[in-house]
Design brief:
Length: 63
Amino acid sequence: MLTVVQETAAASGGLDLLGAGIGIGLAVIGAGIGIGQIGNGVAQGIARQPEAAATIQGAGIIL
């Protein structure tokens, strides 16, 4: 059984690294979208209430 697993791992030809790269890339894209949503909320909040800009910016930076 162990030899089958070892042969399969050896025959993968680096596909494990490709999968890891794709996974990391998707995680970075997801984080970028989330940070963009925070920026979008800050911009909309300041546009709706310009007098509260300092408070809104502070909350946006903390998040």
